[in-house]
Fold this sequence. Notes:
Blueprint: H1 2-20, E1 27-38, E2 47-59, H2 63-77, H3 90-106, E3 122-134, E4 138-148, E5 155-164, E6 169-170, H4 173-176, H5 182-196, H6 206-209, E7 225-227, E8 231-236, E9 249-254, H7 269-272, H8 274-277
Parallel strand pairs: 2-3
Antiparallel strand pairs: 1-2, 3-4, 4-5, 5-6, 7-8, 8-9
Amino acid sequence: MKKTINVFLFITLIVLCFVSCKQKTIMTSEKSYSEIYYLAEDTSKGSFRVNLMIEIPVCYHNNVTLDGIRNTLFKQLFGQDYLSYGSDTVLNIFASSLINEYKITNEPLLDLLDSTAFYSFMNEHRLEGFSLLNDEHIYSYGINRYVFMGGAHGLTTLNYLNFDLKTGTQILEQDLFKDSFQLELTELIKSRIIEQSNEDPNIESIAALEETDYWVDAIKPNNNFYITDETVNYVFNPYEIAPYYMGITEVIIPFDRLKEMLKKPSVIDYLIYKETAK
């Protein structure tokens, strides 16, 4: 009887895997890893915290597309050297590499510094990978990374990737917009920064933007965007268009502000005209 049940469970598992991998949207599995490595027996002398929470694409009806997306994401999350590792092992191997590098770099310095310098050994690496838009046409993915390796402060960065599931390729600006889009899109991004700054009545024009701490000449399309069902959202990380204290700048651009710039046809046409289609 027990053998029969085990065989039944095995067959059921195989059937479920087969069915799920025929689905038309990306199926993911969330993997996590957390560890604190102490530099010495005296835990106050230094530690390295590693926290990883990664949503990994594991199933899609087109294996070539799935592998391409996975490889691109692994390059961005972990680096080129981690493409050969499986979903169940890559986080452990990546974390071990980070901890080993921290150990090799800092252990020889421990006896050379007095206790007032121990704060510089309290390091941290947090990494989160998460799905955003995930339908039958587009898969969008975000990467949130925080790294503190001593100094005045750590650094948080947000980076986004979007994939056309029909072709299996990453969607870049040149895929969305007409040729010579840079100048028009740059002005639109600046305008949206102003429009989103309603809490600051002093920012009412691009000329007024020059009087703020934004580095206006640096504001331009940067290929760091994600697609929603209503907008294309650009993200600028600290030091990219403004000083650190201003944090991350997100610029939300509704589709109706982009229509004239988009290629025809566009990979996001189905989102823009979804209401009309109904």
